[in-house]
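Re: folding output
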Amino acid sequence: MDIMLNYEAKCFLTKKQVAGNPLISVANELRTISTKQLAIHSMAVSVAGLKTPVDLCEAKFMKLYSYEESGNSYKVRLLVGFLDLDVELVDVDLMLDAQHQPEYLAMNPRGEVPALVDGDLTLRDSSAIMVYLANLAGADPWWSNEPAEQAAIMEWLAFAASWVQYGVFSARAMVSFGIPANGLPPDFQDNLEAAKHRGHRSLEILDLALQTSEWLACGRPTIADVAVFPYIALAPMGDISLASYGAVGRWIEQFKGLPRFHPIAGLEDPSYRKP
């Protein structure tokens, strides 16, 4: 028996075969469609024959707390765009210290962006958010159901959170924003030369990998590429040149050519924040 599900948010229709108890089965079906973040406000079901469509109104979407110039926020926004998801963006202005205000800290005690709220679930790390979203969307191509591919993707997520974060990320923060970032107070004197050294070393590692592979993992674009791309592409904002890393440069241009790609400030003009 067919039940038509009518989502008011983007008004798309789909049909699901529902067996057994209609109300329980429909509820179970709805839980599997969380990529559209649906809230049931009305349900009209004719139990005798199930001929009346299930009507779902006022869809509630996930909330993504983000800052426009944050590379970690940007990578999640990129994935949201690639997956064509409906997500409510909530701006958290880091330059106004909005991330340390009581209301935000109550939701995210880390005082960082991004953060994702989907119903009762709150995620406070960009890698965790991307794994979650890619799985909701059905894994392929951005994630995988294969253990070996999952491990290959996770290896680059870890690279983004370590080598990239303490290299090109830190250099960009100090050179273009005048702050050390990484949870340090604004007046903390961090080591720019150390950040640049790590930045160049991470670029060497990345370039070597991309000399023999078109993408970072699985032979296709995955969240591994999404995780690594932002701060690597923005390295010149930290006075780290990409000129010596040909394979990285090719990969950056290839990534920018993906459908639904959208840029961030600094990609074309790395000096836009400098006096």
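--- second protein (sequence, then structure) ---
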Amino acid sequence: MSENDGSNKRIHPRSALTLLVQYHFESLDEVVCEYAEDVSLGGMFIKTATPPAKGSVIFLQFSLSDGSKLVEGLAKVAWCLSPAEAEASDRVAGMGVQFIHFDEESKAVVEEIVQRLDAAEAEARAAEAATEPGSNVPG
């Protein structure tokens, strides 16, 4: 793994998801649309072959899959994984962004997304454990 991937510095656990996000940097005229691969209370990983430089501040927007709630705020590029680094490590090129300024409503929506994903993941693990051989053997 690259030292730039941020995996050792995470405060919040990540939850997998596929979510279309758009962001602006350098100019409000240029909007970039990419897919996020995971999210946490503190940030997300966005797949991209051309990330802004580490340390760049971006204005990030995304909404729930049903379109009901818009999340927007500022995020900082915490680390980048170039296409060459990604290929060498069998990973996906992109950037890890840290949320730095979201309004209270946007923070609440991110928290709701993470809680839903965590609950779904826990349910899937429980269902998988219940179907493993020997899981229904009386003690």
